[in-house]
Amino acid sequence: MSKQTGLKVCVVGLGSMGMGVATSLLRGGFETIGCDVSEDAMTRFVASGGKAIGNPAEAARDADVVITVVVNAAQTEAVLFSAGAAAAMAKGGVVLSFATMGPDMARGLEERVEALGLGYIDAPISGGAGRAAAGELTIMGSGRPEAFDKVRPVLDAIAQKVYELGDRAGIGASFKIVNQLLAGVHIAAACEAITFAKALGLDIAKVYEVITASAGNSWMFENRVPHILEGDYAPRSAIDIFTKDLGIVSDIGRNLKFPLSIASTALQMFIMTSAAGMGRDDDASVARLLAQVTGLDLPEAPGTI
């Protein structure tokens, strides 16, 4: 356990974000148990100095904090209840739920977790794999103050900014939904802009240099366009993540009878890219779809035949 806090932490989900969270906790001195369906991911975590157990209930046994870094609400529910992680936790433990989901789902999970005598923090994250690995995430959290107090050392180890946005679940989820609307639109716009520049016959590396120093820049343009320039579509964040997240945005907008025309257009771009066979590739692959449709040649990774 952490000598500073006495907290034992279990991280379920050792993908690009979860691995960064788990290794940041190791650097912070916490006893950290990793859990994932991928044997390779668990092997890499063990090589980093952690412990890994494939069964969520066994991994969460007597844990003071369980962090779920999975894809969606359904996977979060499966880990906590179907697989038994919540029931295996130490008395008075706290679940930190990082998945993007609708606010109603977050409130439902909170109710079920609290019925077991545990705390629950609706804590979606932002920042990407690089910031996760550096322990510099942004957390949009909502939950009971006593739950935040208990996990404060954990939050300090994995995040640069922790926003406490309310005392019940669902508020954090709503903030993340707004973030994902913007993030998805900005990725789609960045991909459209750089392929449009290619169609204009411009040097797209020079376009990147100019735009990142100009008012048209966005965090997503600056972060994703290098993937396109390098022809590297290994998934840091996959197309299907935004197919899912913008789908949630769309569902909420429909229920509220709130028009989301720009977000809906971006969603269709991600759906088309997924349908073209690139769902598990990097979300900058929207640019590849546009290039295919318009007959453009984008850079290829070195060694590509």
Overview features:
9-stranded mixed β-sheet; L-threonate dehydrogenase; 9 strands; NADP; Rossmann fold; globular; oxidoreductase activity, acting on the CH-OH group of donors, NAD or NADP as acceptor; alpha/beta; N-(1-d-carboxylethyl)-l-norvaline Dehydrogenase, domain 2; 6PGDH_NADP-bd
CATH topology of the largest domain: Rossmann fold
Shape: globular
Rounded mean pLDDT is 96
CATH architecture of the largest domain: 3-Layer(aba) Sandwich
Please provide the ordered H/E string of secondary-structure elements. EHEHEHEHHEHEEHEHEHHHHHH
Question: CATH class of the largest domain, anyone?
Answer: Alpha Beta
How many structural units, i.e. domains?
2
| Count of distinct strands | 9
| Sheet of most strands | 9 strands, mixed
Radius of gyration: 20 Å
State the assembly state of the protein chains. Answer: single chain
The amount of helix comes to 40-55%
- At the fourth level of CATH, the homologous superfamily of the largest domain is NAD(P)-binding Rossmann-like Domain
Strand content: 5-15%
- How far apart, in Å, are the first and last alpha carbons? 50 Å
Q: What is the overall number of helices?
A: 14
| Low-pLDDT ranges | none
Structural class based on helices, strands and sheet pairing: alpha/beta
